[in-house]
Amino acid sequence: xxxxxxxxxxxxxxxxxxxxxxxxxxxxxxxxxxxxxxxxxxxxxxxxxxxxxxxxxxxxxxxxxxxxxxxxxxxxxxxxxxxxxxxxxxxxxxxxxxxxxxxxxxxxxxxxxxxxxxxxxxxxxxxxxxxxxxxxxxxxxxxxxxxxxxxxxxxxxxxxxxxxxxxxxxxxxxxxxxxxxxxxxxxxxxxxxxxxxxxxxxxxxxxxxxxxxxxxxxxxxxxxxxxxxxxxxxxxxxxxxxxxxxxxxxxxxxxxxxxxxxxxxxxxxxxxxxxxxxxxxxxxxxxxxxxxxxxxxxxxxxxxxxxxxxxxxxxxxxxxxxxxxxxxxxxxxxxxxxxxxxxxxxxxxxxxxxxxxxxxxxxxxxxxxxxxxxxxxxxxxxxxxxxxxxxxxxxxxxxxxxxxxxxxxxxxxxxxxxxxxxxxxxxxxxxxxxxxxxxxxxxxxxxxxxxxxxxxxxxxxxxxxxxxxxxxxxxxxxxxxxxx
Length: 484
Description:
By secondary structure, this protein is an alpha+beta fold. The protein has eleven helices and 20 strands.
């Protein structure tokens, strides 16, 4: 009895293997640094009659092992050529090794919606908003190309590490060990103030990020305020960002992380377009928004802090290193944002719960003055502008909105009733402050007020007196002025 052998077809190659085979053994995912926009790419197209055209690209976006995306913005000639002849060529340079690569492409389709388009549009929008070009300098479409072949450019030889023949190693950023160290710091925090400081300290000591800030919503529509920062000459507490402006505002608006590399070169490009737009009368000259933090950052990472889709805040990290945040870190960045957001929200809820059983408002007490024999006390004028809900101290801006109303209430109680100690609970019960009944973030607002006082007028301070209690301490004489 003979056995009939059944012939089976070989399994189809995986997309990664198929792509590597089509590209001469080079997998696109191994070329991640080429897709960061650190060095401009060059796009070559050809019309039906054979006329060539070359254009510089700010960014080539990796889509999957067999496709890349190019931004369609102003390249009308290239677009016409592609409509006549769907084949193109892109030259890339690896910023780590200086090795040049040639991608032979075939146009597939254009996308005006979807994850690829959204990712590319957010990147362009963040750059444009710095130069006042939001809504003008924008992505029209994400053109998807199939990568037919990948070829090494022999005229651009790689730069290897110390003659070893190996590619220079790129240090990993978001490692599990670093995230675990950051988690341990967060768990040890016992207040919202300590939590925020621990997060930024951990980013520096565990991940090596020396410049970072956390912003939270103010309660005013479309405004975020800096509540903690690290690494800048001035702590920046109280600085505001508008939703939709700059990387912070765009992150808050889209509720998605944004990672920018080679930012300085792209900003120069955006400013050049801005000048042309001004000459054409498309935008006023005063719309330019200065870069926050570092004067010339090369890399920025904006992370939305979300809990069940609700924006708790935005974490912004900056670096003067061009390729500081890697594509491989995307999943861990989102994990970091979710973890930090939950930690902040839980701490806010815990602090509110801990003081919910507070008794009646604190009784009248000493006025909090600290006298020095023979010393001449400074006199400060504190002016409250009711129309703008803004406070100026000696003519200089201090704070506005709800923290300003709280500070004015404390000063008036101190002046009229000689009170120096207060409780969080009495502020919550004060109807004149119009605190939201749910998620008022009072502790965060008090922290902002305390840090602004430390920065602008350290002779007036809010001193903690235990959970849910604080004292107003004055080392100066205060004259209160209320203005419309």
